[in-house]
What does this fold into?
Amino acid sequence: MYSFRNDYSEGAHPAVLNLLQETNFVQSIGYGEDEYCLKAKELILQEMAPEKADIYFVSGGTQANMLAIAAVLRPHEAVIAAASGHICVHEAGAIEATGHKILTTVAPQGKLTAELILPLLKAHEQDHHMVKPRLVYISNSTETGTVYSAEELASLREFCQERQLLLYVDGARLGAALTAPHNNLTMADMAAYTDFFSIGGTKNGALFGEALVIKNEILKNDFIYQVKQRGALLAKGRVLGLQFLALFSEGLYYKNARHANEQALRLKEGLLKRGFRLYANSSTNQQFVIMPHSLGKRLIEEYQCELWQVTEQEMVLRFVTSWATPEQAIDELLGDLDQSGI
Amino acid sequence: MYSFRNDYSEGAHPAVLNLLQETNFVQSIGYGEDEYCLKAKELILQEMAPEKADIYFVSGGTQANMLAIAAVLRPHEAVIAAASGHICVHEAGAIEATGHKILTTVAPQGKLTAELILPLLKAHEQDHHMVKPRLVYISNSTETGTVYSAEELASLREFCQERQLLLYVDGARLGAALTAPHNNLTMADMAAYTDFFSIGGTKNGALFGEALVIKNEILKNDFIYQVKQRGALLAKGRVLGLQFLALFSEGLYYKNARHANEQALRLKEGLLKRGFRLYANSSTNQQFVIMPHSLGKRLIEEYQCELWQVTEQEMVLRFVTSWATPEQAIDELLGDLDQSGI
Amino acid sequence: MYSFRNDYSEGAHPAVLNLLQETNFVQSIGYGEDEYCLKAKELILQEMAPEKADIYFVSGGTQANMLAIAAVLRPHEAVIAAASGHICVHEAGAIEATGHKILTTVAPQGKLTAELILPLLKAHEQDHHMVKPRLVYISNSTETGTVYSAEELASLREFCQERQLLLYVDGARLGAALTAPHNNLTMADMAAYTDFFSIGGTKNGALFGEALVIKNEILKNDFIYQVKQRGALLAKGRVLGLQFLALFSEGLYYKNARHANEQALRLKEGLLKRGFRLYANSSTNQQFVIMPHSLGKRLIEEYQCELWQVTEQEMVLRFVTSWATPEQAIDELLGDLDQSGI
Amino acid sequence: MYSFRNDYSEGAHPAVLNLLQETNFVQSIGYGEDEYCLKAKELILQEMAPEKADIYFVSGGTQANMLAIAAVLRPHEAVIAAASGHICVHEAGAIEATGHKILTTVAPQGKLTAELILPLLKAHEQDHHMVKPRLVYISNSTETGTVYSAEELASLREFCQERQLLLYVDGARLGAALTAPHNNLTMADMAAYTDFFSIGGTKNGALFGEALVIKNEILKNDFIYQVKQRGALLAKGRVLGLQFLALFSEGLYYKNARHANEQALRLKEGLLKRGFRLYANSSTNQQFVIMPHSLGKRLIEEYQCELWQVTEQEMVLRFVTSWATPEQAIDELLGDLDQSGI
It folds into this structure.
């Protein structure tokens, strides 16, 4: 059976591996100063025009988040995040390990808004016995698959600028967000409306790797030192550059993400048609479905989907699709449900 | 011209890439719990018998060092290292960024001994106004290509145990050390004589990746949390496991290192024959040669070797070979020197 | 008018100043190894028999908390605290600045129980993508003046031991807790039921200073290094020792606290008699009273009591008494309220 | 016998204790916002005119150093200090515990100069694999009692400004430096030629306490948050303010230091007259004398002077005087030496 556990169950998109193969014996300079990294950055920057930015390639999502957040904050400055945010829950205290508190608020559908942030700001107004909120962290798509539209991001940005807050977007699943149906958000918007953000490769066709895009001038200055200090500067930096070069050639990054979304939305539609209720209003490659215990248990075992939540009455299961998910896998899963008589 | 700048100028050994290709569409569980990681660990552990250890795969050398050192020390405990040690100079303060001081001593040929360590211990004896030395860091091979023999390592280990010091070996170039001519040190010795050590993949045929081998029981406990917290836990952990699986199958790791050493020693012999003096007594894949300025400048330009040191009279150049260095590249370099009339 | 802003508005109890005067020209050794410190520790330890502990004197409450908590935790270990806990809110992120996350739960009356802690433990069970809960932080008396009884503390202790959690009590206002009417908790209980705790001097008659009492063996080992490293080791350590010597001679510490509580409870009774409602069920030297805006504003101005909370309808004011609060100050305040016609 | 162990063996200058007594029952606001702190700051600022600065009072020297240094540096930035500097040796790794490396150079007489600093800068030029030197730390008077003149400080300042380095002076014994015979350095010079510096109270007549003087605009901004976060914000901040108020009224700070220096220099002269050699060229209240073992051992026992260094042939003893050292104590010590027949 096909596993719907996550979007990093396979290796890399073949185009990525092929480029690694083709260039394998070319010698190049280390630490990300090679031509492949430079070309990859150019391709990404083209999509952000007219905005300009510095780009760094690092190994993973937690590394990208902790590195960039710690680099821009002074010791007493804190992060604001949704309580469901990845940095709050599933990064083993990586942000706190760099010395910074995260202030959280419960956010419906995992999305922050000015209205949700305001009370945190009020509670910390000019009181040096408390931390000073300085950076807003959001993820797009969020941990439950929801997305921010261009308008929502622009509005958050405006609010942040008024309050002298920096805005960072964790884009571990940015591809899914940018290709979500009806979402008008573009890579150029991302650059226009944030201080810095990440573009996730791991969950969208790379072997590993995230791009950090940095517009903020304070953060730009000497950022490379921090990349090194946090253990994020690979000797063979080209390995990251080559992967992003493959992903941002001929729109592969978006093709991959669109495919993942499409399969997820076929699944969603199929589930709704069969009368299942959804736990989150996701338009991307993670779908959260409410199931009775008996069926849930079987699906977890057979399709390795993740148990997201459990109550006495029912379970919430997470199904994740990726660039590698065959259409047929969705068909088979839905067919299986039909035969289950549900 | 072939570049002798370093041992990470090419991609990966073809066997590594091939294994990534072959397994590319197999789905597996994330975060290093997959079968490839397990098999790779088994292969490595076989070489350490009868010693037992935990093994973790991480992305890079600085990450391996900082992660493991920070995990085992209490806040007031310090590291002892040669002043030339990689963690002291070229890791952008990564160890200090985790809160720990490094106490250094100038070490001939980059190698620590009990005699060199003793004065540091004496100076810090039972004085809580100072840090408490707790861990000895060495690199093998060292930053100048020298190696520790089995006897030297055993002796250092004994000294450390008497003084309740932990012993860590940075093995970014461990392959080179273990295959150096006349060196009797084995992987089993490494396990027997250290508390923890790293096995470098990046500089010996992997795209990227280091294995951390942990015998120390305190460090074993909960170490995986720290891997996550420092941003070192890759979602597609298999990518690291697969590489080490390839490298530790059929002795590829040693073949790679032996090849690199052989080419370096052919270069060394050729240089000595031509009357050049050496800066360090290296028996591994880094060679440090003293050159007049005019010749040095040309070689740097043409062969991209690194300028290691410079005085008014002369230069020290570093030439590095790797698993990928063709025999012919050495021949051409030596031939070039002959034609230079030196 | 007498200020009810807090319990650190005056200098020190005269006995403290007198002892500083009397001993002023005696020469003694530095850094807390003097005879006054030793005597003060003996006096405190007598009250804890048969328990044994190490005692350190430091300058302030935040320092005591951060120093002790950071010293006992490994990097991935986290603190559990009530959301209202001092370390969560009013220490400017001092705990996070040492690298540790605080997991919070909303606790009625600011008091933690096994029932409140359990869901946090469940949510973090054996998942190394999250921090590992390791230490329970409570304050006694709490931030709203409530107290833990001997039974409550013993029960929490038992729960912690079953779950391998350490228990730390922030005793910035421990005197108030131990002398609260009907509270059966003793200093010996504190030693019996915790791993470490602080005894606040600043808010109970000292110029400044807190005693850290440490039973936990891991924490004992080398703790003095950490005192130094966090900037908490005073050269003239005697200044702290002398103050605790004065406070723990002839029960002055308890007399001071009892006086503060008595005045606060006279105020409480007077307020209840006059029909005011209370915000918290405090039996100690902080009282939280609900007031209409107009009266509240006047009292804040005249008596410098703190505005604790404000809604559209009413205000919550905090009144704090201390060892220095004259009986007459309470009488005058109540008399004033009578004349206000409320 | 009078103890020459250090300058913090007694309590406080009587004027300090008296002011604490006189004001003891005045109620004031907490956390250093009281009138005594304000007045003390005004007095100190008058001596710095026309320079302006922010002033904070904290508990101790290590706290002052670590707090201020950590507040001004970004994570990858490092400190430059003499190898003998207090922060390098005797602060238990407090600076590294905040994440920053200290780069050291051996400095004759414990004093840094442009010439000594330059090689460190060169070695770290634009290489992000290393830390970035950003702050020069000096102590005045130094750890061996030597002083910087106004010209030396001005010259260091100029060098730092050219190189975009911040300059911090650890003034734990600043009084001794400013009143050293023939030293033309003034408090106004200190303000003119540094980015920030400390004024030591503990070793010059206070019970405890150091003033941090901050001119640097980056550091000024939000500094108070860091004071709180590092546990350095005393609830009864007035206790520090009152002490500095007493010390900076009627020049007491300078009188105290001058007295200490005079006694030390009487001792120095007496020692030289008797044929002893000195280890350091100190013009302040610490004197370092070379002694034969037999005499040295006796003096350590009887006068509690500190054993600074020991070789097979001889010992170096440190004698420290203070505001409290009676003239007679010097006379007796010299008389004792006469009777020893040396």
